[in-house]
Amino acid sequence: MPPLPLIEPNTALFLDFDGTLADLAPRPELVQVEPELVGTLRRLYERLDGALAIVSGRPIVELDYFLQPLCLPAAGIHGAELRAGGARVEMKPAPGLEPLIPPLEALVRRHPGLRLERKSVAVAIHYREAPELEGLVRAAVADVLRDANGLEGMPGKMVVEIKPAGINKGDAITAFMNMPPFAGRGPVFAGDDVTDEAGFAVIRKLGGVGVLVGQRDTIASVSVTGPAALRCWLHRSARALDGTPGPDDLPPASDPRRHLGGNSL
Questions:
Q1: What average pLDDT does the chain have?
Q2: How far apart are CA 209 and CA 14, in angstroms?
Q3: Domains, in order of start, for the chain
Q4: CA-to-CA distance for 123 and 126, rounded, in angstroms?
Q5: 122 Cβ partners below 8 Å, 6+ apart?
Q6: pLDDT value at position 205?
Q7: How far apart (Å, rounded) are the C-alpha atoms in residues 106 and 2?
């Protein structure tokens, strides 16, 4: 894969949260946000004239909690929640979700290594602390969805989620790209999970840059080793956009620094 250049002022920047901005934790509520990250996201948001959005499987209210005091444009629950600006959150309905909860709660009670996470219009079963139960979790989700309408299961990193059908991060990015201030910019999306592939597909179609955080098979066009490397890239990009690069940000004379923006890769 080619190297990852820095961000330019005409970029539309989309960022996943868990495993991308923040390192994964045994349980979602234990995630830690690097103190410097919030300031960097604020500067990027300002330098990009507001064309920065968080695109995550988490509900928007949780993203706001971890990134406070920021209130960024965001797509939560893989796009089932959308906030383009201000405080208003548009939400896709999840008909028939509540009857599926009791059998999933019973499964979690029988297996303490599992964790049930309730969201506004979705529910997820995490098995990070019991990876040997992956097959059991997938079978249980398939069973409760057998007679459900308008819902679907989505597997991810050590998790299977039930959410409104036909919703994905690619559609969320498309929605943002059709509205200001994102429209007409070169899109960039960074994510780590298989659930981010729909976003990478849309980014590729739009001629933008998909950034895989980690190593696996992907249609993303570039990759970084992990969240720490992604955060370092964001910090360097913010300093460059401010016009104040640090000493470690200066490229060698024989390797001029390229920048992200439009279709520069």
A1: 90
A2: 10
A3: 7-91+167-260 (3.40.50.1000), 98-164 (3.30.70.1020)
A4: 10
A5: 77, 80, 94, 97, 161, 162, 163, 164
A6: 97
A7: 48
